[in-house]
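Extended Data, panel c. Modelled sequence:
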Amino acid sequence: MEWDMSGAVSGERLHALDAVRGAVLILGVFFHGALSFLPGPQLWLVMDSARSIELSVLFFTLHIFRMTVFFVLAGFFGRLLLERLGVGGFVLNRAKRIAQPLAMFWPIVLTVFIAVLIWAAVQANGGVAPEGPPPPPLTVETFPLLHLWFLYVLLIFYAITLVVGGAVRLIDRSGALRARLVDPVVRVLGGRAAPVLLAIPVAAALYFTPGWMMWFGIPTPDTGLIPNSTSMVIYGFAFGFGWLLHRQPQILQGWGEWWGAYVGPAIGATAGCLVMTSAAPTFAASAQDFTAATQDLRTLGYAVLYGFACWAWTFAIIGFAVRHLSGHSPARRYLADASYWIYLVHLPILITLQTLIAPYPGPWFVKYPLMLAVAFAIMLASYQWFVRYSFIGSILNGKREKPAKRAKTTEALAAAE
């Protein structure tokens, strides 16, 4: 199926990209759900009695590409909105869709998260609250953004992009500089050798991260109001690349044609990273010693391979969607709409379920799917009954009418004609 690029200009639905954006948010449930089953030392709030090296590999792989894909698409859709709505409309739209959910849901999620955390600790301690040091004071460095960090980072990227974009338009009023310099560079970066070229900034950012824990890849900026520089460079580059990609959406057509060529290299690079570290989580930091000005070639090689895997997966996934998911699908459309709500609320639900099933014996391949099935049942039911047609749904995805009400409206209009 050929991808219709007209929607990238007109603002119509781009079903393939919507599907991928929703999918990477939903994969966050699989990602965080695997935490309690990871082998090795205590890593998560709840550690299950069953551990799985298979889920460890899944966790590792999802972390390689999930948020990079998201930020590429966030940049692409961000410029689409700016072109369609103008600066004022863009700011109002992002305030409603991004800033307002962050302000609304962060205190609720944090409160529920703390309550579930205390309950999980009591359960693990035989029904008695464990003694321990008080939590750290709330500061700029310790501020807990939790899994909503991506909304906060998006707001930063939007602000930076508007400022930089305004400056560029002042300097390059005719657009000639962008057409002659920026667009050709983006075409090269979006060409067949893209995973190799785009791996360079990722590898550099990771390699120069002090005390980088290699197995965990890109450090997650979930704590602190000043995000870590490594994630800001890597995800900021992905966001900026997606933003500029919207100027030439036909590049995505090439991704759709070549997507299969990236799958094998993506799997191979991921396997290579696991061989260089471990299939199980390890907290070992890179051997880099900048004070002694030494060069650790193993760390550099791993960073390059990780960066390549990150972008090979990104091109394969987006390219697959462009090639095969460009048509409208009611099921994919529904899940894409529900994905925002699912991601906002999934973490406390998962921790509750993880705590409930952790003590019971049983293999991971029974407990993990069962936990996910219950979690998705709760999240999808709550979306359908309480969110989709409510003011919350209006904030997250725009206002919707219930089918019955819409049918009555249509009948009334038909009768009036």
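The radius of gyration is 23 Å. This feature is highlighted in the accompanying rendering.
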